[in-house]
Amino acid sequence: MDIENGFLQYKQYGWMLIGTVSIALVFVLFNVARAKKSSAVTIRRIAGLDQIDEAVGRATETARPVLMSPGLGVLDGIAVQALTIFASIARSAARFGTPIRLLNFDAAVFGVAQEMIRDVYLSEGVPEQFDPDSVRFVSDRQFAYASAVAGVIHREKVAATFMMGEFFAESLIMAENANMVGAIQVAATTQVTQTPFFVAACDYVLLGDEFYAASAYLGRQPVLLGSLVGVDWAKMMFMLFLIVAVIWHSVQALGGVSPDEVAKGNVVEGQEHPSKDQLFFVYITKLSRE
Amino acid sequence: MNITSLLAQDQTPSSFSLLPSDQSKWLLIVGTVLVVSILLFLLTRAPSNMRRPVVVSITFIAGFLYFLEWVLPKYRITEEGQEVVRQWFFGLSYDYSETVPILSRLSQLLTGILLALGVFSIFRLHVRRLLKRDPNWLFSLVLLSSLIAMAYIGFSKFGMERSVEYRLMTEEQLKATNMYAAYDLLFDKGLQTLDAAMFSLIAFFILSAAYRAFRIRSIEATIMMAAALLVLLSFVPLGIALTSWINPDSVAGNLRIESVGQWILLKLNTPALRAIDLGLGLGVFAMGIRIMLGLERGVSVD
Amino acid sequence: MNSLLSQSVFEDPYGTLFGDGRWQITVAAILTIGLYSLLYRENKFYRLVEHIFVGLATGYSIYIIWNDVFYPQWWVPMVGKVGPDGNVIANSNWLWAAVAPVGIVGFFVFSPKYAWLSRIPLGTIVGLWAGQQFLAFQNRFIPQIANQAQPIIPNEWTLMQPGLPPGTVTISDAINNFIVVITWLLVLSYFLYSFEQKNKTIQKSAQLGRWLLMVGFGAIFGTTMMTRFVLFIDRATFLLTEWLRLGPTT
Question: What CATH class is the domain A47-220?
């Protein structure tokens, strides 16, 4: 049987890749189950998140609206995460009677947002306060979206902005315009290349995956806490993985380079992969490039 | 028949893949729409405790299809291998990996249909403003008319591109048509110019953001802007000129501004961003698991 | 309007409604200036251009989603396609019709009573995304980590110099590799949430991680600044050279 040709993704060290990801998967599932059972699962304080309520509070004092933008993402986990945070912001807004503006880039995200925010007002007992036009689809073209958001920021003199999700070049247009009207700003983006601009322009920025920690932190739901701790375990696993790999490579490198490996193409000039034996990390990188 | 021929664009004629000339396709299309609609209608009658299981299982199955693609063995099929590989499990797994691209198309189509939700939202907002004679009603009128004009020209272009006359036209003749002129005005001179203009506005905003960051007297902001300045200088001739007196071949040559800039980019920027990216990647990963298991309130039903 | 558009297409291909004048460029320039007026403050001119922008963008999206998605990926596979000389380009896979009602159910978001039905298409979209994350994570991040694993002990006690054989780890390489590894570890340690960072060492390392992160952000800031100015220069050239015909013409 021609199985030589099969199981391509498990070949060589491919099983290690799948294995590592599976371990991370198990970490998350295990901790979710653990958190559901016991209340011992906790997370540390996250500074930026304490500011969300303050920002909504300030908007209430001025009676100007709170603006939320889930960024340019399509309907995926990032957008769902952003909307989950927005739902908790909308909850505070509904309690204080602060008007909201949730401006969407993607129509499917708009659909989910429309329903989620309506549910928030319903569960707060003020369904009549919900204005369907406060959750809007604006445009699904990047800069048309940015120009329209800038327009809303100026015309309605928003008191606070929450930009959370996937942002690209338009991040600065929106953040700087909000600065022009003196809004208090909390931002988080999954696009690392845009984080520096938010850091420069906004009052509080959730760095990196603090964005994902936010819903666990705000809601204290066991499931979310557990999943966050599972992710932590995976991070520590990868840290250990790197330390072991560095030591391994260092020891191997001490022995110099074998001409065989050079001939086989496992050692490429300009790339520092010296080894005497087969290096599984070299194989991993090679395999993934195929 | 296997699953590939069911939905994939398998061109072997079968009961699922009719010849275009076969007019019974219309009956089947209408029939499919009706059957699915009836099924969905029946769902509205379902008791409310059924809702969550229905939605959660649909989400789970959708995700599981890709999970399977990840773990099921993959093949590179050779001429001789064809027969062998098509045995039970392996054959199924091969067919499966051939069928998976359909899923991304499905997702695209569903997202596409939902665009109409957004268009509805726009019309609702602006027609309401028109009717109420909102102070900004004139702008709403402008928005709606440019929307309709652009869509109209777009669809006319679509129709024209599929006409017989279009195929016979030379490029010069094409450029002389009203259609071309209208599309050029609305798309090239309108939409694309506006895109470029808005994009270039960032140059001003980046300056004001930099100024703001320089004024914040925190350690973090100072570190960030110092690194920004160094890297910026390493790109511009003026910056490079500052340290051009250092001999590039000496050890001190490492202190030339372009070397420092490159070093920051490669040895500090790259690992720092990779670390933050790994955190984000794991966040997405965990999010995916939670969505598949129906643990995210946002997309499941309470 | 329809006849006007098609008229010249089919009967008078050389006469255009809009001529070949330069006024289109003037329109483009006015639109550009309209958007730029935002820098001063929000005004009626900006508002007009903004609404034109959003209108055109949405209109274009409607057209392009038919042209790029529905027509080639749904309509053609569903009803089949015959080429100009009668050859079959695509067969009719009529089962694609099932997608339409499932997608249309999404409109129930506006009805409080049946809103849950909209979760069927929305849940499918998100579910499909979720399933892709395993492979996506594996392909993107594990090679990244593996690539960072470079030797940190030199096997040749010299500084970096040209002409060394591949695989040589000089003192410079070792130091640089160490910095890369330690930066990655410190930054990642800042993003651990499961324990309070009470321990002094952990606090210090997380703080250092944050600072290193800021250096990384600064580097992005610097590089992006360059590209953004290039974009502005491009627009300035458009306004000055192409529209006002000032300066050197190309």
Answer: alpha beta
